């Protein structure tokens, strides 16, 4: 590609992903694409993640393929033995990094003083929106935010003030207002909840009017006083920090999220919709896994009939109770369909690192099922034997499924997953949403609907979306052009 041959000499970009698998995966792809445009790239991860990458990912060969891509580390501030998965992990990592990482990041940037290696642009994960904006201001370099969550979630959080004003939030929180609308402080400080109609339609979200029900809002808008206020306050706060950045990079494409992107362009200086990042030519799959990939599942898939297998995975953070796990297991077995299931050793709540749970289930599943601790997901989804994906609707998993043309059954857990699953079922019509319903009968019915009764309909719409995704990253496509704009912007802004 012509622009890949161009020179970006002297431009040194530091990428700081949030310390989660999905964020590292997508920012790693972006790092590769920028390295191909000859930027000098520093990929800064936490010590914990760096150890994982060295152990399980192929970052040696990455360094060889991209000699201008270097890795550096920073502490996340948590003790070594602190659990970094599970539903509370995000909150712990967020508060710890916000307390510890600011001076560390500033020192890393300032220590690169030699003209040749001076960092000229920061691409910071919007998960750490306030922290990265403060450091960029202090050291005086341009900042671009990157969002690893879906555009719809980012926008629904950014629009919290609209929802508050129109009384559409399921709760009213004074501390939220005190941060994002200090001029409109209210006297009420109580959470109003309890009688919520979760099927109430939300109308006041520009670009997605009347699409969401209350239950489809990001999970930060749900919950009880103790577990809700801080995550909601901080995620809304960080979304608003993107107003301090020179632009925002989103892992999506025009044909997927066009109406939202148009609205965002009215608020933010620049919106670079460059996704699906992993679908651009020349990025490599599976370079940043935190767990060891069990590739034996690919051999098992080779012996299965065309589009006959349901792939089941709940991403890198979500945990399930043993009871819930058993409902999925009975539902899958009763559906009589073949399945490949990822059960991470730390996935079953309260039974940390106990591989026996998966082993017990596998014993009763041999006929039609295959269980692994971690799969090469991009390759699995691209395999011809895969006919559906039961997913927690994390944004990377959703995009990977869309690109592979695989219809989904969504069982969202937290963060952007509630809104992603709504878009899958109601906007893009490439699957079914199991939100807030989960027992063995529902699982069995939805598996059969997806894989048998409505199979042709879903395969057709998923295939059509996959075609649009590939078109967007091909020469002349919207994401291809947006990546080009991003490259040019970094060069001009960091002179
Ligand atoms: C988190 C949030 O939970 C999610 O909601 C948000 O959109 C992104 O950050 P995570 O839960 O890990 O991410 O889900 P997801 O975004 O789907 O990312 C998981 C990544 O791990 C995917 O890239 C997937 O390919 C990879 N994966 C997962 C594997 O490589 N192997 C597996 O067995 C499972």
UniProtKB/TrEMBL annotation:
TM regions (residue ranges): none
Q: Which residues form a coiled coil?
A: none
Q: Has the keyword Glycosyltransferase been applied to this entry?
A: yes
Q: What is its EC number?
A: 2.4.1.-
The GO terms this record gives for MF are: quercetin 3-O-glucosyltransferase activity; quercetin 7-O-glucosyltransferase activity
* Alphabetically ordered keywords of this record: Glycosyltransferase, Transferase
Pfam families, per the entry: UDPGT (PF00201)
Q: Does the keyword Ubl conjugation apply?
A: no
Q: Which family does it belong to?
A: Belongs to the UDP-glycosyltransferase family.
- Full protein name: Glycosyltransferase
Its taxonomic placement starts with: Eukaryota, Viridiplantae, Streptophyta, Embryophyta, Tracheophyta
């Amino acid at each position: 590609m012509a622009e890949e041959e161009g020179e970006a000499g002297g431009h040194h970009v530091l990428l700081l992903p949030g310390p989660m698998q999905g964020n590292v995966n997508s920012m790693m792809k972006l790092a590769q694409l920028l390295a191909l445009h000859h930027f000098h790239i520093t990929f800064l991860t936490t010590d914990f993640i760096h150890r994982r990458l060295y152990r399980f990912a192929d970052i040696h060969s990455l360094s060889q393929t991209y000699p201008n891509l270097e890795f550096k580390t920073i502490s996340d501030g948590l003790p070594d033995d602190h659990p970094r998965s599970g539903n509370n992990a995000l909150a712990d990592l967020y508060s710890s990094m916000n307390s510890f990482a600011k001076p560390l990041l500033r020192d890393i940037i300032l220590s690169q003083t030699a003209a040749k290696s001076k960092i000229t642009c920061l691409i910071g994960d919007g998960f750490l929106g306030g922290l990265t904006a403060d450091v960029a201001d202090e050291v005086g370099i341009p900042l671009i935010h990157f969002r690893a969550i879906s555009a719809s979630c980012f926008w629904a959080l950014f629009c919290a003030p609209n929802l508050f004003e129109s009384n559409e939030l399921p709760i009213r929180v004074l501390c939220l207002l005190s941060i994002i609308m200090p001029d409109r402080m209210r006297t009420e400080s109580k959470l109003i909840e309890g009688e919520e109609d979760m099927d109430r339609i939300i109308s006041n979200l520009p670009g997605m009017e009347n699409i969401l029900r209350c239950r489809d809002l990001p999970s930060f808008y749900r919950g009880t006083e103790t577990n809700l206020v801080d995550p909601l306050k901080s995620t809304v706060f960080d979304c608003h920090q993107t107003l301090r950045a020179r632009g925002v990079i989103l892992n999506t494409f025009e044909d997927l999220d066009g109406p939202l992107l148009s609205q965002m362009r009215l608020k933010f200086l620049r919106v670079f919709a460059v996704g699906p990042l992993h679908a651009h030519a020349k990025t490599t799959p599976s370079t940043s896994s935190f767990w060891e990939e069990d590739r034996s599942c690919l051999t098992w898939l080779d012996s299965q009939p065309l589009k006959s297998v349901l792939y089941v995975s709940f991403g890198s953070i979500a945990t399930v109770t043993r009871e819930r796990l058993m409902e999925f297991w009975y539902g899958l077995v009763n559906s009589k369909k073949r399945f490949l299931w990822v059960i991470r050793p730390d996935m079953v709540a309260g039974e940390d690192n106990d591989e026996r749970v998966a082993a017990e289930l596998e014993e009763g599943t041999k006929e039609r099922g295959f269980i692994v601790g971690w799969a090469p997901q991009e390759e699995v989804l691209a395999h011809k034997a895969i006919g559906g994906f039961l997913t927690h609707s994390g944004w990377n998993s959703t995009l990977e499924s869309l690109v592979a043309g695989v219809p989904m059954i969504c069982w969202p857990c937290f963060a952007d997953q509630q809104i992603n699953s709504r878009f899958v079922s109601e906007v893009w019509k490439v699957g079914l949403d199991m939100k807030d319903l989960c027992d063995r009968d529902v699982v069995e019915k939805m598996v059969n609907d997806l894989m048998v009764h409505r199979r042709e309909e879903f395969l057709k719409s998923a295939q059509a979306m996959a075609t649009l995704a590939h078109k967007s990253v091909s020469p002349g496509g919207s994401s291809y052009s947006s990546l080009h704009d991003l490259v040019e912007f970094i060069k001009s802004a960091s002179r």
